[in-house]
Amino acid sequence: MTKDDQIPFEAALVARTGPIEALLRQLLGDRPLSGEIARPQRLMEAMRHGVLNGGKRLRPFLVMESAALFSADGEAALRVAAALECVHCYSLIHDDLPAMDDDDLRRGQPTVHKAFDEATAILAGDALLALAFDIIADEATMLPAERRAALVLALARAAGAGGMVGGQMLDLEAERIRPDEAGIIRLQAMKTGALIRFACEAGAILAGAAAADRERLAEFGSAIGLAFQLADDLLDLTADAHQMGKATGKDAAAGKATLVALHGANWARDQLQGLVDQAHALLHPYGEDAVLLKQAAKFVAARNS
Amino acid sequence: MTKDDQIPFEAALVARTGPIEALLRQLLGDRPLSGEIARPQRLMEAMRHGVLNGGKRLRPFLVMESAALFSADGEAALRVAAALECVHCYSLIHDDLPAMDDDDLRRGQPTVHKAFDEATAILAGDALLALAFDIIADEATMLPAERRAALVLALARAAGAGGMVGGQMLDLEAERIRPDEAGIIRLQAMKTGALIRFACEAGAILAGAAAADRERLAEFGSAIGLAFQLADDLLDLTADAHQMGKATGKDAAAGKATLVALHGANWARDQLQGLVDQAHALLHPYGEDAVLLKQAAKFVAARNS
């Protein structure tokens, strides 16, 4: 990959963050919505701390680009993207808790339980998860109810016991019960893969695309989800804490089983190239319309922070 | 209230628990659903521990009875009832955590973080919240998509920052910032009231009832939610741990502001009667069809465990 390939993509990624930041800020405002009694200030501050933290907004980008591929309504896609980012950020808040990964820093800032306290961090995560479904189900997400319900279902399943949360559970257990290679792949497909898969599939659901297109985008999401995790494991091995804005080398120190630990960095780089090729092949039918999604696959595999 | 009033109600409550227990057990099974990768066994065990614990299933009962009042489909109501119980049980699991109420016992059994560990309890709660929206949004809940989306929205809003979780946040803060009477009422309307209000409103949404009926049932839910909390505060003052299956006297020991602490037990009993009268008046238009819901209001106000 040449550096030139990345320039338009990174510019596009940055361009997409403006509207998503603005919407997240609005959705996390202090004013109660219809049906709400009051939004406690400290809780809302903790939620904003956990969400409005300078994240790259990769998952929202994937929702918006996959939606654009099928000419879905951009405003609706933006709301689904914001909902997904709420789920992602809630998972980070809970993952950082002392009982879980016990991290003090996230993007160079104190984690929510450090900036506030543990109880507030638990509740802020819980409220963000509920908010995600609120955002999608709301009529303000100008989609037919059938599609809103389908998006709620797909997100709930990607986030729940059989997806992300299940993957976090397997990850906790991996320190006791060392998984084999198939176990590691399954763990990662759940822990980080499920939400990335949803991000890509969501565009097709939003647009009411054909089942074959929905499946193709979901497969694309699975491929780049795997790539994302491989790149993360490589980074944990090679990057320093300053570059990542969080503690690194923790997996190796914990003796945690990763594919990189199992097969080495060179193997991982070959695998990453294979996953990018596979992701590109899946998008072949969409031609030039999919150019940014193709670049996203390269970006995910090559990221250095 | 005579003892005779309660007999048919308690029998009806017990009769309703059979189907709800069976459905919850099925929904919390180990077999992954379509779109799920795997359901980690330890996570599912923790979720079952937190849900299949001999709860009275009052909220499910309210969903089913309010649905029956408008002749909604019983199977759909049962699924919405199960979803609500998942939200209620997740909130108890997180509430019992050391960083929150730090309770070791719930219904005489070890709490989830005691029977498993803190990280598993956090994840089990998270997964139950996601599962609730999964259950409602699923086409298996044989309702028009518009109603499934409306139920998701109402539940998300009742559970989130402007409802139950917001109330838990205010409750945490109440130990530092002692709320005034209006503050206590708001806290309780959120912490315990919002889900009970949803339970009663859900029946009207399920059935596609008129907006005025939906509002009336929601008001009924608010009244009995207040009564529920008043009765709880009275019990905390007067019952012993054995009767409750959990620690009691904690509010008084923590100097926690409750209406009972503010005005005394006799005032609270008068208030309870007033709330029951108000709840009954709201159901007046439905005549004999609402007899069990009316008895539920009395039950909530008079419960002794």
Characteristics:
305 residues, mainly alpha, 15 helices, homodimer, Farnesyl Diphosphate Synthase
Question: What would your notes on this structure say?
Answer:
2 copies of one chain form a homodimer. Helix content of chain A is 71%, strand content 1%. The first copy, chain A, has 15 helices and 2 strands. The first copy, chain A, has a two-stranded antiparallel ribbon. The two termini of chain A are 17 Å apart. Chains A and B meet through α2, α6, α7, α8 and α9 of A and α2, α6, α7, α8 and α9 of B.
The oligomeric status of these chains comes to: homodimer
Beta-strand fraction estimate of chain A: under 5%
For the largest interface in this structure, which chains are involved and how many residues does each contribute? A-B, 65 and 65 residues
Indicate the low-confidence ranges of chain A by residue numbers.
Answer: none
What would you report as the Rg of chain A, rounded to the nearest angstrom?
Answer: 19 Å
The CATH first-level class of chain A comes to Mainly Alpha
Our measurement of the CA-to-CA distance between the termini of chain A, rounded to an integer number of angstroms, reads 17 Å
Major beta sheet summary of chain A? 2 strands, antiparallel
Protein name (chains A, B): Probable farnesyl diphosphate synthase
Pfam families (chains A, B): polyprenyl_synt
Cofactor (chains A, B): Mg(2+)
GO cellular component, one term (chains A, B): cytoplasm
